[in-house]
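Hi Y.,

Following your request, here is the sequence exactly as I used it, all 151 residues.
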Amino acid sequence: MTSDLRELYQEVILDHNRTPSNFRALEGAAYRAEGYNPLCGDKIQVFLQLDGDRVEEVTFQGAGCAISQASASLMTEAVLGKTVSEARLLFEQFQELVTSETQTPDTDEGLGKLNVFAGVREYPMRVKCATLAWHTLKAALKDSAEPVSTE
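Below is the corresponding structure, written out as tokens. Let me know if you'd prefer a different format.
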């Protein structure tokens, strides 16, 4: 990854940490889940409202490092308007993006701004920060009452 690209990615992450999209509780949310990363203390709640099989509204609340907050923010933007199966596919693609040894065009395609997290794979301890919101979203889509833990 070039230095300019790395700086751009860092700036996107910092911007979404400072002013996250969809950062609020969603009153009357039909689906919700809580997630926790005990290693660093990141905590998140994801709230969902579906219209049939489509994500009509998705918000989050929580506290944590810049990577976890930016990931949650960008995740809410990415899944809004998607079907449940499309949101699950995005989860799988994002998971592969941050955990795979090599970048593949298949992984990058369709992730858009989420590609800013590609560099996280170089820091295994940060992968859990980046994926916490996604695992919490997955639990909310399953309507799971059990809190999600990265451990």
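The domain at 3-142 is CATH 3.90.1010.10 (Sufe protein. Chain: A).

Thanks again,
Q.
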